[in-house]
Amino acid sequence: MHDVVIVLGYSTNPEDPVFRARVDTAVTLYEQGEAPQIIMSGCCSMKLAHRPAVTEAACMRDYAIDKGIPRGAILLEEESVDTLGNFYFSKIRFLEPCSWYHVGIVSTPWHVWRSKWLAEQILGPEFAVTFYPSETPEGWDEQQVRKSELRNRTLLAETREQLKGMQPGDHEAVVPFLGKLPPVRGSAPS
After folding, report:
1. How remote is the C-alpha of 150 from its chain's centroid?
2. pLDDT averaged over consecutive 10-residue blocks of the chain (190 residues)?
């Protein structure tokens, strides 16, 4: 059993098959008694032109509540705009303050390689982490899966280079590399 399960954000669209695959996996884990709490992690992608009105975390929470998860079992991490941020903000806002060191992580299968490495680097050796890859998203064909696998392998290589020399558990070392939030619609770029 884990202290908490973290779902890595992907989209604000509950109809998106990746969104559904990830949150459905967390719902199943909760129903099976794998963790009493779920952290929905993500504000939005830093690649967006503008911040959405509702965060990825809030959309995932609403979807999970519709699936029967109690509102009180769900925590929101709404600051991250990338996977580095998912782990960084979850660690400093929830994991360390609550002394939660047994953690389950949910993401899509091809995102787990990079996520596993980032969890080891950002969370560090004192955390016992188990990964739960979701099902392949509904409607995804082999070409989409291969394209995502290649993209995530490339990102992993770039991230390893970027964080070269970082000591596992030194989460402050990632701060300079955290993505930046997109602007609020109608605001001047900073």
Report:
1. 19
2. 96 94 98 98 80 91 98 96 95 98 95 91 96 92 90 87 92 89 57
- Please check whether residue 25 lies inside any domain of the structure: yes
Tell whether the torsion through CA atoms of 68, 77, 53 and 49 is positive or negative.
Answer: negative
In angstroms, the CA 46 to CA 99 distance is: 29
Write the CATH number for 28.
3.40.50.620
The count of structural domains within the chain is 1
Residue 189: inside a domain: no
Length of the chain counted residue by residue: 190
CB-side exposure of 167: number of CA atoms within 13 Å?
Answer: 3
For residue 85, the enclosing domain spans: 4-177
Name the amino acid, one letter, at 136: T
What's the pTM value of the predicted model, to 2 decimals? 0.91
Q: Is residue 188 part of a domain?
A: no
**Token digits of residue 185:** 């619609």
